[in-house]
Amino acid sequence: MKISVGHGLADAEKRLEERGVSRRDFMKFCGIIAATMGMGPAYATEVAAALTADNRPSVIWLHNAECTGCSESILRMASIDGKTAYIDTLILDVISLEYQETIMAAAGEMAEKALHDAMKKPYLLVVEGGIPMKDNGIYGKVGGVTMVEMVKKAITSKNCLATIAYGTCAAYGGVQAAKPNPTDAKGVKAVFPKSLVINVPGCPPNPYNLVGTVVAAIMTVTKKAPLPALDGDLRPTVFFGQTVHDQCERQPFFEKEQFAMSFDSPEAKKGWCLYKLGCKGPSTYNNCPTKKFNPLDKGVGVNWPVQAGHPCIGCSEPNFWDKMSPFYEMEK
Ligand code: SF4
Ligand code: SF4
User: Which of 112, 134, 147, 322 has a CA positioned 20 to 30 A from the CA of residue 247?
Assistant: First the structure.
């Protein structure tokens, strides 16, 4: 396959090869992202071009009130072929991450300078974690600055092209916003209603949904492509357009009203529906059954919670900690 995208692709390939990622694997990765975006194999070339375009924006990633599980969902990903563990390298390299507190070596003033420098040119902002708002945000600070002030500075800069709220905490407040929400934690859009925010929720989210959203945002910036279509909760419909239930392999059992009544029952092991054990798949929008998690085999993960025998708890829905609990009881 011949790709013509200036020096970006050659540079990216060289960088990745130094880290043990071959060109073939990079294109395979781009094919997986294309498939996640609902496109055919030919679209891999477009994805490669977007991820290596000379004028692509960098990514600044800020942490707020959270468990860092969303970052971990990327860092703990296994490889494309199940043998080598480089997919985190691939993702973190190709999205041109300029600032990320969890993984960068810099600390203290060096880190602050890195953020200051990264904000001098156009960037996509990724926010992980809810924003504590009570008492002027004093319950969440980094380097003496409140999280709300940090996000405000980054999201209102003229260089911020768009913001991706990654994970349910950043999208809707998450666990710290669950009742009684002692710090008045909120999602990014609730705090900055005028900003362009795309939500990629999940607890944790699927990292391929993040990369697909970054690719779509880069295409919007570099090729004036339209922004991805969003649902009423600001989620890209290409990833969150269908319920978990509508894509679930246990659905034929639901239709026949064959419900497992305990986790250790032979019926649960035979794949019967987990609805009566509390599954919230019918009211949850996400692509877990089709994209799955863990090492990839032919572009799809090897497993997902319901396949492994655990009900969906609705983690990509707003306020799911309150709305979907008790998790092991049927929805009322
Ligand atoms: S296990 Fe959950 S998502 Fe799957 S069919 Fe049953 S209710 Fe639907
Ligand atoms: S199956 Fe449900 S709870 Fe589990 S990750 Fe997917 S949306 Fe979240």
Answer: 322
For residue 124, what are the β-bridge partners? 59, 162
Neighbouring-strand partners of residue 63 = 128
* Whole-number pLDDT of residue 6: 44
Using alpha carbons, select from 180, 182, 185 the residue that is nearest to residue 127: 185
Q: Which of 238, 264, 298 is the last residue of a domain?
A: 238
Q: Total domain count for the chain?
A: 2
Q: Same domain for 234 and 253?
A: no
pLDDT in tens, 179-219: 999 999 999 999 999 999 999 999 999 988 988 898 999 88
- Provide the CATH number for the domain around residue 108: 3.40.50.700
Asked whether residue 26 is domain-assigned, the answer is: no
Residue 7's pLDDT is 56
CA 71 – CA 281 distance, rounded (Å):
24
Does the CB atom of residue 280 touch ligand 1 within 6 A?
Answer: no
Task: Tell me: do 183 and 80 sit in the same domain.
Answer: yes
Residue 1 confidence (pLDDT): 27
User: In ligand 2, which atom is closest to the CA atom of 202?
Assistant: 8
> Which structural domain range is residue 151 located in?
57-238
Q: Which atom of ligand 2 is nearest to the CA of 280?
A: 2
Rounded Cα distance, 241 and 247, in Å: 11
Our answer on whether the CB atom of 282 is closer than 6 Å to any ligand 1 atom is yes
* pTM for this prediction: 0.91
Residue 292 Cα, ligand 1 centroid: separation in angstroms?
15
Tell me if 288 CB under 6 Å of ligand 1: no
Q: Tokens 């900690």 appear where?
A: 321
275 and 219 housed in the same domain: no
47 CA to centre of ligand 1 in angstroms: 33
